[in-house]
């Protein structure tokens, strides 16, 4: 059947090219911060041995939580067009307030049930005052809240000196305060506990489901759809899925090294079968026949994998000392040189062959413009495969090295092959697609293998990076190609939507799996991470899906316009100031109940970190634009260096320099991406 | 049938300044009334009275034949009188659909029904003959004419019977102005009364059914289309005798 070959009329607006998921993603304000956060993370992942372990991740996320929560609140206020310089000191003030109140004025046997609500009431009042002053006087919020900042800072000193005769309020704990426990559970409850026995299985299950969904998402968005799904392929798919699950479960429960490979094969076969079944169910078989890798993709992939296998076989014949000798023969510089040579060779070969085939295809008509960047991208990927493959080969002394090499090769090769085949599929035949699914499945299996060793810390980091690389790599590669495809049938659109949902759910599962892993990492993690997630979620929802969100954007974007159409501008602004103060009070509670003491200078200077996190997260300083999710990423960028520098064993004094550079780069990237995306409209 | 909106001898004083003096005109459904005047002629005061921002010091303001006194723009809007200001009351960084429903978001409670909003905004713009490329794009990326059209479509959707357009073509190029004029006619065809304020008689004449000329707060006349030619309109508008004097002066050089 080739009825779908000719695209049906698009029905859309012919003036706009189909906007692929990539572009749609890029115009969202938080994407710059996400990419920045990933880059900073990758940097510390690369230099710090322990940085990406579950427990270290839990630790820096825990440290980032107060900043993240405040950044979300401050981002909302900034989108509404105002600043609050008193937000930092507010955190300290409310801590001191509760501390003094609970200790001094109530004595033993009196409860926090009065102190905590009173703190929130006071914070709300201060916020109301801030907002009212800004709205009524028309003064810049910088000035008004700067005044509040000084007043609060002074009050902190005065009251702590007068009441406890010190510049720090201490001993805010269960011994002194009778009703301390329930509040501690809410604001600073611990997650420190040994992982439950099912945690590993749950993690693995979530990850596998996520990977499957991502593969389906990929297929939905890339292949040619059947007009009517063919149900007879469903059993194949179900059977394959069952086999794959069985393989993975067995893989996870065995200890013998020999059985691992058997189970992995079972999983691999099952996964491939499932993918094939799914493909047969939903897609034109004509698109699948003669499935094999397109020639340009074959050579570097097979050479890379072949070299890996050869290297593995050779190194297996040698004992440890011999390996060490071999390993040290080419010096580091030579290894790098060889790697670079291999990479350039891969680059050159693919570019040459690609150009030649383009020329032969284009005889009689002009080669399409979009083909060239794609080709260069493919060549870069080929360089990556070849280079990393060769370097890995030179370092093969252990099975882990082999596994890592195969993983890199397969993952990069899969993405690469996908690009090539999809490029071809659009222009001429639709071959090679099924195999692509299998390549992805293989990568997933290797990923499973890596996760199998997740108990060790370093293994977690490979697994984590693997998950991110696979998910992000394949989805982005697909999106990139998708963005070039201009003509879409209505049928395709529906499938794209479905594919996107698969992708979203899949990424959600990845997130859930990682969250589970981190919370049960055995580190001393508190509830603040949970509060961070909840508050970010609520704020994002309010901003996107409620009328108040619309008002916040409008109040920051064009106050007069908002007023003209009946938005209660003043109330919105006052509400935002109150919200920031209340969230500040909340974070104050998180801190005081956790550390049991508050210095009088607590929180001073933090307000700039909040603003920085919000700006890095894509909020405009002038208001009217931004994202709270981005602000959360911004908080991560600001916190990661603190922990990362320790793990990298760099001088801790570098932190501020690093922070400055990273912040600048993050904002720069953010701006670049946004500009580029806006141009694409 | 009474006119949708009628002004009888409206005057407005600010202290000892007379901003408007004895202005009368009317707006009928499906008709375009153009208000022409040079800078300082009293056009903005006129709009502010119509849209309920100012109360007239003297004279009667009739809606559907009954005298009204508007305390605020909200009252005027409730009576179906919508004003599209020059700055259009839009936030440039917000998407078309968010702007379209700004201040009147659909949905229960605080919930903002975004899919309904996107769909409806697109439909409403289409009804006005406006084919927006992408409903998600920020208003700031639209051209001036498109932005005007979105503002007009928004006013129409929210139940406007009388549309007051404050210099919609003043900042636009020739082609964009043409686009806006087309939407003005379209709005009138849909049964709205339109008040089109401009200082360009070449924009006013092709679309107008009625012309009110203002000069220094006074009416130079309120004409139906058949009573006046474009040349006469231009001459009156430019200050008539003053322009002739100017031509004389320039010609003498």
Describe this structure in words.
The complex is a heterodimer of chains A (681) and B (253). Chain A has 681 residues and is mostly helical. Chain A folds into three domains: 286 residues, ABC transporter involved in vitamin B12 uptake, BtuC (Orthogonal Bundle), CATH 1.10.3470; 189 residues, no CATH class; 131 residues, no CATH class. Chain A contains 25 helices and two strands. Chain A has a two-stranded antiparallel ribbon. Chain B is globular and about 60 Å long. The mean pLDDT of chain B is 81. Chain B has 253 residues and is α/β, with parallel strands linked by helices. In chain B, strands 6-7-8-3-9-10 form a six-stranded mixed beta sheet, with helices on both faces. Chain B contains nine helices and ten strands. Classes of the chains: A mainly alpha (681), B alpha/beta (253). Chains A and B meet through helix 20 and helix 21 of A and helix 2 of B.
Task: Describe the protein's topology.
The complex is a heterodimer of chains A (681) and B (253).
Chain A: H1 21-26, H2 31-47, H3 54-79, H4 87-105, H5 112-137, H6 141-164, E1 168-169, H7 180-188, H8 199-222, H9 234-253, H10 257-282, H11 295-316, H12 320-328, H13 332-361, H14 371-394, H15 399-427, H16 433-452, H17 457-484, H18 490-519, H19 528-545, H20 547-557, H21 559-564, H22 569-595, E2 598-599, H23 606-616, H24 628-647, H25 655-679
Antiparallel strand pairs in A: 1-2
Helix pairs in contact in A: 2-24, 2-25, 3-19, 3-20, 3-22, 3-23, 3-24, 4-5, 4-6, 4-22, 5-6, 5-22, 7-22, 8-16, 8-17, 8-18, 9-10, 10-16, 11-14, 11-15, 13-14, 14-15, 15-16, 15-17, 16-17, 17-18, 19-20, 20-22, 23-24, 24-25
Chain B: E1 5-14, E2 17-27, E3 32-37, H1 43-50, E4 58-63, E5 66-67, H2 73-78, E6 81-84, H3 96-100, H4 114-127, H5 144-157, E7 162-166, H6 174-189, E8 193-198, H7 201-207, E9 210-215, E10 218-224, H8 230-237, H9 241-251
Parallel strand pairs in B: 3-8, 3-9, 6-7, 7-8
Antiparallel strand pairs in B: 1-2, 1-4, 4-5, 9-10
């Amino acid at each position: 059947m080739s009825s779908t070959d000719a695209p049906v009329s698009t029905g859309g607006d012919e003036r706009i090219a189909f906007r692929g998921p990539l572009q749609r993603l890029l115009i969202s304000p938080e994407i710059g911060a996400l990419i920045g956060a990933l880059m900073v993370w990758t940097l510390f992942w690369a230099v710090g041995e322990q940085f990406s372990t579950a427990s270290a991740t839990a630790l820096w996320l825990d440290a980032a939580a107060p900043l993240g929560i405040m950044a979300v609140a401050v981002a909302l206020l900034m989108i509404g067009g105002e600043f609050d310089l008193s937000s930092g000191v507010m955190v300290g003030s409310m801590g001191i307030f509760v501390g003094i109140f609970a200790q001094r004025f109530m004595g033993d046997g009196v409860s926090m049930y009065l102190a905590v609500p009173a703190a929130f009431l006071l914070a709300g009042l201060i916020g109301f005052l801030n907002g009212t002053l800004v709205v009524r006087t028309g003064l810049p919020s910088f000035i008004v809240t700067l005044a509040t900042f000084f007043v609060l800072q002074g009050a902190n000193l005065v009251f702590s000196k007068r009441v406890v005769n010190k510049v720090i309020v201490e001993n805010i704990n269960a011994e002194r305060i009778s009703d301390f426990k329930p509040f501690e559970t809410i604001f600073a409850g611990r997650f420190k506990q040994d992982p439950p026995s099912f945690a590993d299985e749950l993690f693995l299950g979530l990850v596998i489901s996520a990977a499957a969904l991502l593969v389906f998402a990929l297929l939905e968005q890339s292949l040619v759809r059947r007009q009517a799904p063919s149900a007879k392929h469903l059993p194949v798919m179900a059977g394959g899925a069952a086999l794959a699950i069985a393989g993975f479960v067995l893989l996870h429960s065995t200890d013998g090294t020999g059985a691992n490979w058997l189970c992995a094969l079972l999983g691999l076969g099952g996964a491939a079968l499932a993918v094939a079944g799914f493909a047969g169910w939903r897609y034109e078989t004509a698109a699948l026949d003669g499935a094999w890798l397109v020639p340009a993709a074959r050579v570097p992939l097979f050479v890379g994998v072949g070299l890996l296998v050869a290297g593995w076989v050779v190194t297996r014949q040698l004992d440890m000392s011999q390996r060490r000798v071999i390993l040290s023969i080419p010096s580091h510089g030579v290894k790098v040189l060889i790697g670079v040579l291999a990479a350039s060779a891969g680059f050159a070969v693919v570019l040459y062959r690609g150009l030649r085939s383009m020329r032969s295809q284009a005889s009689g008509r002009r080669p399409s413009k979009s083909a060239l960047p794609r080709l260069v991208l493919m060549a870069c990927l080929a360089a990556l495969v070849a280079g990393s493959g060769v370097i890995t080969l030179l370092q093969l002394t252990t099975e882990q090295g082999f596994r890592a090499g195969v993983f890199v090769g397969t993952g990069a090769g899969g993405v690469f092959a996908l690009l090539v085949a999809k490029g071809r599929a659009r222009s001429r035949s639709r071959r090679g697609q099924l195999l692509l699914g299998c390549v992805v499945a293989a990568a997933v299996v290797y990923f499973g293998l890596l996760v199998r060793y997740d108990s060790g810390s370093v293994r977690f980091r490979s697994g984590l990076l693997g998950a991110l690389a696979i998910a992000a790599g394949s989805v982005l590669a697909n999106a990139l190609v998708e963005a070039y495809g201009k003509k879409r049938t209505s049928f395709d659109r529906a499938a794209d939507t479905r594919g996107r949902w698969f992708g979203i759910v899949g990424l959600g599962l990845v997130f859930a799996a990682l969250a589970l892993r981190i919370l049960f990492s055995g580190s001393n993690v508190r509830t603040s991470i949970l509060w961070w997630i909840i508050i970010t979620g609520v704020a994002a929802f309010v901003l996107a899906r409620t009328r108040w969100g619309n008002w916040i954007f409008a109040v920051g974007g064009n106050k007069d316009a908002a007023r003209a159409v009946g938005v209660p501008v003043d109330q919105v602004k006052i509400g935002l100031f109150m919200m920031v103060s209340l969230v500040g009070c909340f974070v104050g509670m998180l801190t005081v109940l956790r550390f049991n003491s508050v210095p009088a200078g607590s929180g001073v200077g933090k307000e700039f970190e909040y603003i920085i996190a919000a700006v890095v997260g894509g909020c405009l300083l002038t208001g009217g634009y931004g994202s709270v999710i981005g602000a959360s990423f911004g908080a991560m960028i600001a916190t990661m260096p603190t922990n990362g520098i320790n793990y990298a064993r760099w001088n801790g004094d570098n932190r501020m320099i690093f922070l400055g550079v990273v912040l600048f780069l993050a904002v720069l990237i953010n701006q670049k991406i946004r500009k580029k995306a806006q141009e694409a409209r | 049938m009474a006119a949708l909106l009628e002004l009888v001898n409206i005057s407005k004083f600010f202290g000892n300044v007379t901003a408007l003096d004895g202005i009368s005109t009317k707006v009928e459904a499906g008709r375009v009334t153009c208000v022409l005047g040079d800078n300082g002629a009293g056009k903005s005061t006129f709009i502010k009275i119509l849209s309920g921002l100012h109360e007239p010091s003297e004279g009667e303001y009739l809606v559907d034949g009954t005298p009204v006194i508007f305390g605020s723009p909200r009252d005027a809007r409730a009576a179906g009188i919508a004003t599209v200001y020059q700055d259009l009351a839009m936030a440039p960084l917000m998407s078309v659909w968010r702007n379209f429903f700004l201040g009147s978001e659909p949905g229960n409670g605080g919930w903002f029904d975004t899919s309904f909003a996107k769909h409806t905004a697109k439909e409403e713009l289409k009804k006005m003959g406006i084919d927006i490329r992408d409903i998600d794009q920020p208003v700031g990326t639209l051209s001036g004419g498109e932005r005007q059209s979105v503002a007009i479509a928004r006013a129409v959707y929210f139940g406007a019977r009388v549309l007051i357009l404050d210099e919609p073509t003043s900042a636009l190029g020739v082609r964009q102005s043409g686009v806006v004029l087309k939407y003005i006619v379209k709005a009138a065809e849909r049964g709205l009364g339109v008040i089109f304020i401009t200082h360009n008689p070449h924009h006013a004449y092709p679309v107008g059914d009625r012309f009110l000329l203002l000069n220094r707060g006074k009416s130079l006349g309120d004409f139906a289309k058949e009573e006046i030619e474009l040349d006469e309109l231009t001459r009156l508008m430019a200050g008539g005798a003053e322009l002739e004097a100017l031509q004389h002066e320039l010609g003498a050089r």
